[in-house]
Predict the 3D structure of the following.
Amino acid sequence: VVATARSVLEVLPSLDDRDVVDFLGMGGTESVRVMAEYDGAVAHFLQGDIEQATGGLRRALELPGAQYPIWRFYILGSLALVRAWTGHCAEALQLAEAALSGARAIDVAQHPAVIHAHLAAGLAHLYRADLQLAAESLDMADLQNLRRPSKVVNLDLHRALAAHLAAATGDSEGALATLHRPAASAIEPPVLAHANRTLHARLLIDAGDLPEARALLGDPHES
């Protein structure tokens, strides 16, 4: 996805607007540009490259194509998620609310464009130990996932955050059971694999199972 998005962004300056189908009535070239920037940024996030993801999403938000409300909600929600992932909770909640309130205002609150906004709010509330609000946000994300025909990565994002929420409420068994469920993605995104492995190891350490935790983390002192 990163390579394809880069190729699209490289070729667009050589095209005339009439070369690209205006399939949304929002400017074909500008819609393609914002989608390429957005998809590339999300792919960087899933790879664990937070800096590239943040920069790409901020660039996407400034593009003319981002004036189309649905694209804007996608970008705001994903930027909220990336910011929440690195602990910027106040900014994440502000961005998530901008996406959610905007979607409600034009009666598209059930659109998949707001899934990341719900996930971001859930993660930010989790960091703040507002566990009830975190659970409510993750429930909304799960409900939106169920309405969506293609939801693989978002299911894995929800699985990771649900495991962290279970651990935060003291339900270690529930957290481990969630982590033991197979990923929906054929290859679990690196950012999630790392987060899940770290949580899994912490739960094993809390349970006193140090050998299993070392094995999970690949203890360099073991042969």
